[in-house]
Known about the structure:
The chain has about 150 residues and is mostly helical.
Amino acid sequence: MAKKPNLLQNEEQIVLSYELLQLMDWLMQYEAEGLKKLISKAFKRGLSRNFNRTVDSQNLSALSSDTVANFISLLELLLVETGAEQASQSSLNRDLLPELDHIDLSSCHYSVIQSSAEIAFSKKEKNPSENTQELLYKELLKRWKPHKKQPEN
């Protein structure tokens, strides 16, 4: 018999983390339409052909428990990876936020600041030794288009 993933324990009971349960609940509440689009995409790529195969009941039982376990394991892995990526991005945001506080929003449109900050984030990720303030200000200067009606400082 093949070794089962760690979340299958004690006579085929599946053990789920609290975080995974929260993700599943959130997806049902807020991303039902997105899930529907994902399923539709699967149909377009040939999922319905798999429905026409015949499988005996013994193989179906083994296949179903393995498939559920593998799917939940994948969800758990993706949740952990995404959480780590978000934590990393959050630390970059904290580094740049003090610099954003020094920008006069009346002289620069918010979309310019946002796009400049995003590019500065990506450059900071690629080269962490770069000066955050310098990166942000360079990007702002590239994108800022002053208007004649704006008062000069």
